[in-house]
Amino acid sequence: MSSTYENTPFKINKAAQQFEMEVEGATAFIEFSTKDDKVYLTHTEVPEALNGKGIGSAIVKKTLEYIKDNHLTVVPSCSFVAHYIDTHPEWHSLLSEGYQM
């Protein structure tokens, strides 16, 4: 992740079921749902004006850090998140049991 976004505020919008990061007045988000100790990451969206700046990877990393810190597991239903985890093996340990990359 670019160090540019290391200190960018990250929040959980429980009402909208989204992990969110505001950058340059726009909000990037990952939609999620939960069941037991599993977090299902279903859709990642980065506003068009922010495309290509590393925002998507930054919010995925912050989301995975949150999941790890809270002793949860991840089910990456979103192809962007699945690709990120696939190319960053350090996150494979968070995958829900039975999930294969």
Automatic annotation (TrEMBL):
The N-acetyltransferase domain extends over: 11-96
Q: Which GO terms describe its molecular function?
A: transferase activity
Keyword terms: Transferase
- Cross-referenced InterPro entries, in alphabetical order? Acyl_CoA_acyltransferase (IPR016181), Gcn5-rel_NAT (IPR045057), GNAT_YJDJ (IPR031165)
Pfam families for this protein: Acetyltransf_CG
Alphabetical list of PANTHER family matching this protein: BSR4717 PROTEIN, PROTEIN NATD1
Indicate what this protein is called per its UniProt record.
N-acetyltransferase
Q: Which organism is it from?
A: Flavobacterium kingsejongi
